[in-house]
Amino acid sequence: MKGIVVFSGSAHHALADEICDHLEVPRSHVKISRFSNDCLQAQLLANCRQRDVYIVQPLVPPTQEHLMELLLMIDAAKRASAHYIAAVIPYFGWARQDRKDKPRVSIGAKLIADLLSVAGVTRLITMDLHADQIQGFFNVPVDHLYASTVFVDYLRKSSDLENTVIATPDVGGAKRANSYAKFLGVPMVICHKSRAKANEVAEMTIIGEVEGKDVILVDDIVDTAGTICKAADLMIKNGARSVRAIASHAVLSDPATERIDASALKEIIFTDSIPLRKHSDKIRVVSTASVFAEAIKRVINHESISIL
Predict the structure, then answer these.
(1) Chain segment 220-235, per-residue pLDDT in tens
(2) Is 193 a catalytic residue?
(3) Which residues of 229-267 are buried (b: 16+ CB within 10 A; e: fewer)?
(4) Catalytic pick from 31, 78, 182, 193?
(5) d(CA 66, CA 60)
(6) What is the pTM of this model?
């Protein structure tokens, strides 16, 4: 692809390199400097003048540092007279802060959208936002891609769809799970949960029939893995033949991998939107690089992205 420059912050070089391979362009280098007072500085080591700049940077831990890198790179590109600056954020780290769920709390997702806009971004390409309405927080075009693009192929090749049931580990994910169920032509069940406090599930019940079925749990984010592991164990207790899970973003905060290993899950499949920091024999990773590369190609060629 001529006329474009692709940069990556320190969050996920491997995904950026794979995207560049699909685009047949080299990844241009960035120099991130840290001063004695702990402030960061970003220097783009490739010409950006009147070129389309794409910056790949998922907002993963250390999240604040990776956000600052992204903002500095966007600012550097703007000051280097870039024609167009697109932020490619496979995982939007503040996506669960999309509303005021308690008095006097910040709405982090809106604040990050404003920061990116002020820095100079002209487009956002992301995947599986926790809340779709976050797209409305931006005043620039947002291309919201879906991990189902890669998951559906994996499920078709690895599943007996005649005996498969799609399940959601909570009511909030019913719309997502229903989309998979309709597309694959299989039934759906729902887990209803109540929380004692954040990241701790108090009680869970199943709405639907899973006895003798191969269950596939669908979620967008697995953080501490408490919900999805409890849902898997509950499915087996209610007679399910096997339980697997797919989830877009592998946050995997402690003690997630230990819970996955100890759970009834046969396997759990993630995308590579977040670099895998901890591994388990039950974890599989599918690449999203081709999807992001295709989205970038379509933006460059002024083609529709809705097919993705």
Answers:
(1) 999 999 999 999 999 9
(2) yes
(3) bbbbbbbbebebbbbbbbbbbbbbeeebbebbeebbbeb
(4) 193
(5) 7
(6) 0.92
